[in-house]
Amino acid sequence: MTAALLSVLAACSSSSRAVRPAVAPVPESSGASSAGRRPIGPTPAHIGPLDARVTVDDLDALWERQLMVPVEGIPRWAIRDNYTAKRAAGIHRALDILAPRYTAVVASDDLVIGRLFSGPVGGIVIYASDPEQRFVYYYAHLERYRTGLAVGDRVAKGSVIGYVGTTGNAPPDTPHLHFQVMKRAVGRAWWDGPAINPFSFFALDALRP
Ligand SMILES: [Zn+2]
For the chain, how many structural domains are there in total? Predict the structure, then answer.
């Protein structure tokens, strides 16, 4: 990735955090049960510093989801790990996946669509959960949703859910998908849990166009 590209992406925000309601912290499940067990998927040694609320059990569960790259036609090797990049609002905690405007955004997992939202930061966004509601997937800067997409929809992995764009604070000349994975939080702000770097968790290339 060039320095120029990094500079334009630096304006890209990590989330719609600014408009989220303030809620009291909620207790997370304990990771004590994972002590002494051999992980099956990527570990903190692979993915770097981990939020204390994320356990090795969570990482194994995420690995078992067999995530698909969420942009049509993009192979795993073409994605850059910009999770820890500095952004205007702080550490990025997401991946920016560059693709031409209107490239299909596909479900990275079997999804339950949980929240459709539009704001000045993320632009047109989708929040969705896996079927067990353990993780939250956040797709931002969409050009638009797939026609008819609605909260409560169940979407199969690989199905089109929207299209790459530059809504929100994405640079107008750099269409990309801002993709974030979080552990689902308990309580009202279920979409505001601790982030996990998905870079090492893509087990499947995106479908070909
Ligand atoms: Zn981003």
Answer: 1
Q: Specify the 3-state DSSP secondary structure of 8.
A: helix
* Global confidence as pTM: 0.83
Count other C-beta atoms under 10 Å from residue 118's C-beta: 13
CA–centroid distance, residue 34 to ligand 1 (Å): 31
Mean pLDDT of 22-26: 44
The more confidently predicted of residues 39 and 65 is 65
- Residue 67, in any domain of the structure: yes
Query: In this structure, what CATH number is given to the domain that contains residue 190?
Result: 2.70.70.10
Structural domain of residue 67, as residue ranges? Answer: 41-204
Question: Does residue 2 register a pLDDT over 60?
Answer: no
Task: Answer yes or no: is pLDDT of 176 > 70.
Answer: yes
C-alpha 12 – ligand 1 centre gap (Å)? 5
Query: Which residue type does 162 have?
Result: G
CA distance 70 to 178: 10
